[in-house]
Specification:
The chain is an alpha/beta fold. The chain is built from 13 helices and 7 strands. The radius of gyration is 25 Å and the shape is globular.
């Protein structure tokens, strides 16, 4: 077998290759645009295992290696860097380090969703990004209205509120800004309506998402995103791993017998945390027990802690997912 440590970049990659049969070690830099990388991997015969650090730009590389019949391992970036002792960092050192981890069986391989599941994630991500954009546009319109002494909050975007907003006497450029923001708001609303329909269709086709939607406050967007983010629940040994995976675990700096806990780590998926917190508000209105827990924690620790606790409950994290 040929073992390859690959330090992957957007335009090129640095590799360290060991042929286990001959013991030959090769270090090379392969360019992507010229097709040099594809030609190199296509020329490899026999079993090939490639190890790379997790990054957001590996989709094309995964497809290429799959077409050529090579095996790809993707490793946890934080654990890979933690295993590097020396402070000198170069592409050649990184590739050699990945090769060493592969050979010593210490490579921190991570679970990866299928290409189809990751493509479906793009639907949920795109929908959430447009929601955040719509909120940003709405905040700008609120600012224009409040500058003229009009504070309607959510009522500003009702039919009556919109008429009032359009009737405000503004300067030429402020009027131009208002009109463009309203046009953007309408366009985003149309796009989100179509995306919500697509998300609902996909969620209804997924048995695990359908099961999650039986919980009060959990709709198609939250359920589908949760299923696509967590993947097989069996890969989590206990609930604390789920907490950490979603970035809902508290930061900790304990020493000398004294425990110090801070705010949540936020190391997980930001979209998933946002959706769980939003769903928590809806669940608290529908579920009496959740509402009581939230009110109790809000009085004792503040609304932020209460929202995180709701996110725990919605994910089934406090007990067992």
């Amino acid at each position: 077998m040929k073992i390859i440590g690959c330090d992957l970049h957007t335009r090129y990659q640095q590799i360290a290759v060991l042929d286990q049969e001959t013991g030959e070690l090769i270090e090379r830099r392969l360019e992507h645009a010229s097709g040099e990388a594809r030609a190199f991997y296509a020329a490899l015969a026999g079993a090939v295992r490639v190890g790379v650090e997790a990054t957001g730009y590996t989709r094309w590389f995964e497809r290429m290696l799959a077409e050529l019949g090579h095996e790809l391992w993707i490793g946890d970036a934080a654990q890979i860097r933690a295993a590097m002792v020396r402070k000198q960092k170069t592409d050649a050192r990184d590739a050699a380090h990945l090769l060493e981890l592969l050979l010593s069986e210490r490579f921190p391989r991570i679970w990866r969703a299928t290409l189809e599941e990751r493509d479906l994630r793009q639907l949920v991500w795109h929908r959430q990004k447009l929601v955040w954009m719509r909120n940003a546009v709405g905040n700008q319109l609120h600012a224009l209205a409040m500058g003229e002494g009009v504070c309607r909050k959510k009522k500003l975007f009702t039919k009556k509120g919109r008429v009032e907003l359009e009737s405000l006497q503004l300067g030429p450029w402020a009027s131009h800004r208002r009109q463009e923001l309203l046009t953007m708001l309408d366009q985003l609303g149309t796009s989100l309506k179509a995306l919500d329909h697509a998300v609902t269709e996909q969620a209804e086709q997924n048995p695990r998402a359908v099961l999650l939607m039986t919980h009060p406050g959990v709709g198609p967007v939250t359920s589908l995103a949760f299923v696509l983010t967590l993947g097989p629940v069996e890969r989590f040994a206990h609930s604390k791993q789920v907490v950490s995976y979603l970035g809902l675990n508290p930061r900790e700096h304990s020493s000398g017998g004294r425990q110090r806990l801070g705010s949540i780590s936020k190391q997980g998926n930001p979209m998933m945390r946002s959706l769980l917190v939003e769903a928590g508000h809806s669940a608290a209105r529908l579920d009496r027990e959740l509402r009581q827990d939230y009110q109790r924690l809000k009085l004792r620790r503040g609304s932020g802690v209460g929202r995180v606790a709701q996110a725990f409950d919605l994910g089934g994290i406090r007990n067992k997912v």
